[in-house]
Design a protein that fits this description.
Layout (H helix, E strand, L loop, with lengths): L19 H7 L1 H11 L3 H17 L10 H19 L10 H31 L2 H12 L4 H7 L4 H21 L1
Helix pairs in contact: 2-3, 2-4, 2-5, 3-4, 4-5, 5-8, 7-8
Protein name: RNA polymerase sigma-70 region 2 domain-containing protein
Pfam families: Sigma70_r2
InterPro entries: RNA_pol_sigma-70-like, RNA_pol_sigma-70_dom, RNA_pol_sigma70_r2, RNA_pol_sigma_r2, RNA_pol_sigma_r3/r4-like, WH-like_DNA-bd_sf
């Protein structure tokens, strides 16, 4: 019997977060990226993130599950960054107005969401590959193994592995474009 295929908007590996704590944990990488993009120095970014997290946790009852957590958390991060700059009597590493910071925050949210959609598509397409092709991708991109080393280990010619990898990349590109 045919199973319905997940859509790119579905998370192929993670179920949707169900609690505030899960949402907060899931967004940490994004929030750190946003803080750095707004202009907080690398040495202070974790402090600002921690302050934002404390605020988010202390005000968790203001958030309604099922609404856009990222948008709410982004506003908190924006405010915490502006407060950090005022408290430290510093400006961002680059001189930005509050309006520019608002635009950056909005753009980072949109770009991050698009990247996540593309990664979900990529994962769906990788799942459709034959196991040996998926293993080759993992060895090369995740483990950092060169194609030459992969060929030696699997007793194949380097050229054959290179051609196979090229075909796999094209197949992934085509698959992603079709989703």
């Amino acid at each position: 019997m045919n199973q319905p295929q997940p859509t790119p908007e579905d998370s192929s590996t993670d179920s949707a977060p169900e609690t505030f704590d899960q949402l907060l944990a899931q967004e940490q990488e994004f929030l750190r990226l946003l803080i750095r993009t707004i202009g907080v120095s690398p040495s202070d970014a974790n402090d600002v993130l921690q302050e934002a997290n404390i605020y988010l946790i202390n005000n968790a009852t203001q958030f309604e599950l099922g609404t856009n957590f990222r948008a709410w958390a982004s506003k908190v991060v924006r405010y915490r960054c502006l407060q950090y700059f005022r408290d430290q009597k510093r400006r961002p590493m680059i001189n930005l107005s509050e309006q520019a910071i608002d635009l950056i925050t909005e753009e980072v949210c949109e770009q991050y969401e698009e990247t996540e959609r593309q990664l979900r598509k990529l994962n769906l397409c990788i799942d459709k590959l034959p196991a040996d092709h998926a293993d080759m991708l993992k060895a090369n991109y995740h483990d950092g193994m060169t194609l030459k080393d992969y060929a030696k280990i699997h007793k194949k010619s380097h050229m054959a592995v290179r051609k196979t990898m090229s075909r796999v990349r094209h197949a992934l590109k085509d698959c992603i474009e079709k989703l």
